[in-house]
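F.,

This is the one I mentioned.
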């Protein structure tokens, strides 16, 4: 008899949980019509960014390819035609492929990029029926002309303090006047002839 009573109590407890959840609002999302809000720093598919004038931020330096631990990036760089440049540096990426099946979404490529050209954005709908459909080419990754953005860089890069001695050119728009520095290339929309006489970056400043 005792056993029957114990079983009935256990059954009652179990059903009480069932009825409690039955009355609550469902948490299931009707994907893909209904999408979940995901964090601003979520790492989804890569995007290649432009400057406001439409030129590409990527200067084909291969730093992202070199730093990628998964070998997911393949770039072929090409010299810019001075009359009709594609990017603001000396070179641009003629070929820029990202293999989404190799990528582990670590974000090293966006951290390595001196020009904020590549970011991982919140497009996480990454599925395909063939391997080829998950090999992204430059035309798939490049944001459309007229929609230049910094993407998730805005959320990853904290704003530098105003009195920082070692300014970060990509964030402040300042550069040290060196045409060969990655920073100067990255902010290639600045006129080298108007470089400040005193460099904003001091010698021996490792901060
Ligand atoms: S997120 Fe990581 S694994 Fe993916 S392409 Fe960038 S560096 Fe490579
Ligand atoms: S690190 Fe940036 S600028 Fe250099 S090749 Fe990669 S995306 Fe282009």
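My design for it:
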């Amino acid at each position: 008899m005792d056993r029957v009573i114990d079983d009935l109590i256990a059954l009652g407890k179990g059903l009480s949980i069932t009825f409690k959840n039955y009355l609550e609002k469902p948490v299931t999302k009707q994907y893909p019509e209904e999408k979940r809000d995901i964090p601003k720093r979520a790492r989804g598919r890569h995007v290649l960014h432009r400057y406001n004038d439409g030129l590409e931020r990527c200067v084909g330096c291969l730093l992202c390819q070199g730093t990628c631990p998964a070998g997911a990036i393949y770039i072929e760089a090409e010299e810019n035609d001075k009359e009709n440049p594609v990017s603001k540096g000396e070179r641009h990426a003629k070929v820029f492929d990202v293999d989404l099946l190799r990528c582990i979404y670590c974000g090293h490529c966006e951290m390595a990029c001196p020009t904020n050209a590549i970011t991982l954005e919140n497009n996480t709908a990454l599925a395909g029926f063939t391997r080829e459909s998950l090999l992204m080419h430059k035309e798939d990754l490049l944001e459309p002309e007229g929609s230049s953005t910094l993407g998730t860089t805005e959320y990853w890069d904290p704003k530098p303090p105003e009195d920082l001695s070692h300014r970060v050119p990509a964030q402040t728009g300042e550069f040290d006047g060196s045409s060969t520095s990655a920073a100067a290339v990255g902010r290639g929309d600045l006129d080298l002839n108007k470089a400040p006489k005193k460099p904003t970056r001091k010698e021996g400043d490792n901060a």
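The pocket of iron/sulfur cluster (ligand 1) is lined by residues 68-70, 72-73, 98, 103-109, 120 (CB under 6 Å).

Talk soon.
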